[in-house]
Amino acid sequence: MRDRPALRELTPAEVHDALTRHAILLVDVREPAEYASERIHGAVLFPLSSFDPTALPIDPARPVVFQCGSGKRSAVAVAKCLQAGIPAHMHLKGGLLAWKAAKHPTVTLDAATGGVIDRR
Question: Could you tell me the pTM of the whole model?
């Protein structure tokens, strides 16, 4: 029997560096309203409420890294992937809260205009 990978927690700096190099696919597992209100630039939305690990775009050249608000839901997404045999075992430790605490930029929408606001 082959060993399954374990949950791997990445720091905000590691995720930021990998995103800058386009070396990962960052998957935000929060709900659409949370994603619309504030997100990490480059993250794609794949809500945990309708999560299907078999629908993830798996590319060995750009591994999936999950992200949520605090790290709890992204760890659940990893567990669901591992249970389904999907090779996605990394997440942003501490989620968006840790990302912002590390002073990395986020993107929000202006409710009045629908325009994108870069928060640096």
Answer: 0.91
Contact of 73 with 97, CB cutoff 8 Å: no
Band (1; pLDDT cuts 50, 70, 90): very low
- Site of tokens 């659409």: 32
| DSSP labels, 60-95 | TTS-EEEE-SSSHHHHHHHHHHHHHT-S--EEETTH
Q: Is 68 assigned a catalytic role?
A: yes
Cα–Cα dist 89/65, whole Å: 7
Q: Please, what's the largest Cα pairwise distance for the chain? A: 56
Q: Which residue has the tokens 């299907």?
A: 52
What are the tens digits of pLDDT across the range 26-66? 999 999 999 988 999 999 999 999 999 999 998 989 999 99
Q: Which of 15, 40, 65, 68 is catalytic?
A: 68
Q: Which helix (H) or strand (E) holds 16?
A: helix 12-20
Q: Which domains does the chain have, with CATH numbers?
A: 8-119 (3.40.250.10)
